[in-house]
Amino acid sequence: MTTSLAGDMPNQPPRLVMKSITKQYPGCLANDxxxxxxxxxxxxxxxxxxxxxxxxxxxxxxxxVKPDSGEVYWEGERVQIKDPAHARRLGVGMVxxxxxxxxxxxxxxNIALALGDEAGDLKALADKIRTVSERYGMALNPDRxxxxxxxxxxxxxxxxxxxxxxxxxxxLDEPTSVLTPQEVDTLFxxxxxxAEEGCSILFISHKLNEVKALCHHxxxxxxxxxxxxxxxxxxSPASMARMMxxxxxxxxxxxxKVLGSxxxxxxxxxxxxxxxxxxxxxxxxxxxxxxxxxxxxAGVAGNxxxxxxxxxxxxxxxxxxxxxHFPCGPVGHLCPEKRRRKGLAFVxxxxxxxxxxxxMSLKENALLTGFLTGLVSKRGMIDHQGxxxxxxxxxxxxxxxxxxxxxxxxxxxxxNLQKFIIGREIxxxxxxxxxxxxxxxxxxxxxxxxxxxxxELRNQGAAILVVSEDIDELFLISDRLCAICDGELSPLKxxxxxxxxxxxQWMTGVFDTAxxxxxxS
Amino acid sequence: MLVKLEPRGxxxxxxAYLSPVLAGVLTLITSGIFFFLQGLDPIHALxxxxxxxxxxxxxxxxxxxxxxPILLCAIGLAVVFKAQVWxxxxxxxxxxxxxxxxxxxxxxxxxxxxxxxxxxxxAGVIGGALWALLAAWLKTHFNANEILTTIMxxxxxxxxxxxxxxxPLKDPNGFNxxxxxxxxxxxxxxxxxxxxxxxxxxLFALFAVAAIWVLLSRSFMGFQIKVLGLDHSAARLAGFKxxxxxxxxxxxxxxxxxxxxxxxxxxxxxxxxxxxxPGYGYAAIIVAFLGRLHPVGILLASLLMALIYMGGExxxxxxxxxxxxxxxxxxxxxxxxxxxxxxxxxxxxxxxLSSQKTTAEQVN
Lengths: 521, 364
Hints:
Number of domains of chain B: 2
CATH architecture of the largest domain in chain A: 3-Layer(aba) Sandwich
CATH topology of the largest domain in chain A: Rossmann fold
Organism (chain B): Neptunomonas marina
Strand order of the largest sheet of chain B: 1-2
Largest sheet of chain A: 7 strands, mixed
Largest sheet of chain B: 2 strands, antiparallel
Structural class of chain B: mainly alpha
Shape of chain B: globular
Main location (chain B): membrane
Number of helices of chain A: 16
CATH topology of the largest domain in chain B: ABC transporter involved in vitamin B12 uptake, BtuC
Shape of chain A: globular
Helix content of chain A: 25-40%
GO molecular function (chain B): transmembrane transporter activity
Oligomer: heterodimer
Number of strands of chain B: 2
Distance between the termini of chain A: 18 Å
CATH class of the largest domain in chain A: Alpha Beta
CATH class of the largest domain in chain B: Mainly Alpha
Radius of gyration of chain B: 23 Å
Order of helices and strands of chain B: EHHHHHHHHHHHHHEH
Largest interface: A-B, 34 and 19 residues
CATH superfamily of the largest domain in chain A: P-loop containing nucleotide triphosphate hydrolases
Number of helices of chain B: 14
Number of strands of chain A: 21
Strand content of chain B: under 5%
Number of domains of chain A: 3
Protein name (chain B): ABC transporter permease
Subcellular location (chain B): Cell inner membrane
CATH architecture of the largest domain in chain B: Orthogonal Bundle
């Protein structure tokens, strides 16, 4: 892939210049004298870990947040962006990570609502949507209702919403996190065409391969400060990662792929109608997880992951007891506590407010699922000392950064809390660990620690099932891989025998990849 | 918006405990002003209300008599409220407890033996518990909001009681007064100090405080109750049985309220009358929150509430104030407590003030 700096126009002032932007939140310096310069027609990456200050900087550009100090120049003129409406008038468009669309309205109606008075006639707007979306290779039918759109299509609606206006700078916040690899390619084609026409793009991401493939320039933030400035084409993902995390943090390594021994979790024909009208029904899921292996399930969010996880954890029970089998027998009807007694441990997607009680101390949160490890006496009394030392062991062994075990769960950072929760589950020596999005929103250092802990548990002979939206992560740690789409599971293949393309197709529901056989490896 | 509340970054545990004290002081100041406006000397009036009633042994004994039912109801409410189950029906549970205890007591007037009183008290506990379980059943099976059902059950309980003292339980030799017969000696609570009315009820209440303290802070059941109240999904994840916890907490709270009712009829009253409670069950809700749902806090708060009841009576006698003064004190206390809590957890900002300022800056 080539990167050509299309917008290299020396006679014109840069599209956007930000000089020593500082923003202080209570207890947190989100931006510390950050500089940013984006030329016309440039695709500029803003890189950084969670909490590095990317979101704050982007919200300042879009007028959502006002900086405490610093200067913003738009096409050479000093401006104070008052609010998002002002930003839109200047020609700034923004696609948020979480879409704000009304499910029951059509695409045209949604865009008209976002534009307000500028929308004008709905018919004319629909025509404009059609032309714009075709021109940039993002086919959309303006009359379709949003609830019938896939996540990728919804993102297109958000992008088109920006493009129907006169746009000069498009900000995309982690746009690829919700897309399949094929959809990512399509998005990149669109973005490149936009840039060639002179529109600047600010691409916020932490996926370094994508940044290297797409962006002309990258600004890297760490802990609210500028930590690097580079041309991604001339860098390696590893060198950019170093700028993101600093020198101390160990980063990704390769893990050996292994084959498991006996089957621990056996799922046969798991079918479950969701109680939630907008939920996904599980359709005849078959899955085996062997002791001593990690099985990964890829998939775009909202394709039945939550429902599958709840059925496996016991939060939802299934009528057909035999559908879920542990070596000791059918468990489909058992509650979470009983399944835990039979060797299950579970790391949910939500850390605060499911994995941990926000207003309870770490010690109490250790007891939350750790109560089966002899922390409660026969007479129903809590062994406070035992709980305290259990919590301390988790904190020490998994290097949870906290003042102590009396700290409330809600005051820990996402990565630290996730280390604590994973530690709590692993310390119970489970025979089966099910983890949902184990490193979602976690910084690279913590993610590496979590991956290592999972691999170690696998090597001790536990069966591990990981559900994640991050394909790179799944390829890194899984021994076997599959994908879930609309409540159905794709075939399960050993990781070395599959490819990013194949898993991408599985994610869109094309399970019969043998006929599309184009062995790309 | 005229006023906006912004959450404060960190919660101060010290302030959380100080808030009830602050509310108490503010209540004193406000009622002082109120007395002044009524043409009374505020210091004298407050002294009459809050000191005179307990200035002698008899007064202190009466204090315990009044505090016992409030404490029993409030300590039970601490358990349900921890689980975020909003039982507003302690009053009804107290009345049914008193009613059921009385219906046993009037049938054993002649009986002798140490089993009589325990049987009557047990009937009271069962009555209160059943009344609470009715609401628990409606909640777990039909998802009916327990706030509404328990309030409605309060009125049903009151009418049942009134019906009973006018009908089946009326004293046949009572000149048609709506009262039951006086209970037999074996049915009455033993008096602790001679020449006063203080009875064993206060001991039951203190025992309940200790037991609930152990339940909430030492037992795994208490831990499950707290988790359920703070975070429903976490309780589900851990596999705690939320329906069973609702039943258990309602059972405890209703049972203790029922015991309070039984204690009233077998203690200071000695018979069933229509007015066995001047709203103890409702006052207990204020007490539970004033005491921060903590057993020790609740013990102190129920003493304060009992004092307010006695002070109200004293104000009626000495200051010619209406009995509504008790309700006024309770209302002020709850109002200030809620206000203090809001101001401790949130910062009040005036958005129109700051937006005016920024527009002014932009004009310049």
